[in-house]
Amino acid sequence: MPKLTLMFDNKFVREVPVGSRPVTIGRAPDNDLSVDNLAVSSYHAKVYFEAGRM
Predict the structure, then answer these.
(1) What does pTM read for this prediction?
(2) Which of 2, 21, 39, 49 gets the highest tally of CB atoms within 10 A of its CB?
(3) DSSP 8-state assignment for residue 34
(4) Where is the FHA domain (predicted)?
């Protein structure tokens, strides 16, 4: 299964699988990938597959 990896300053932070449902990214704690950085909005992005592409 494909994975989304969060790196900061070339260091591994966290990894989440990307499957049949979208992965949400943002500062808010209810995101799948929560990023504690003021440069990231509360609900910054959503990663998903469409027509076999991410």
Answers:
(1) 0.80
(2) 49
(3) E
(4) 23-54
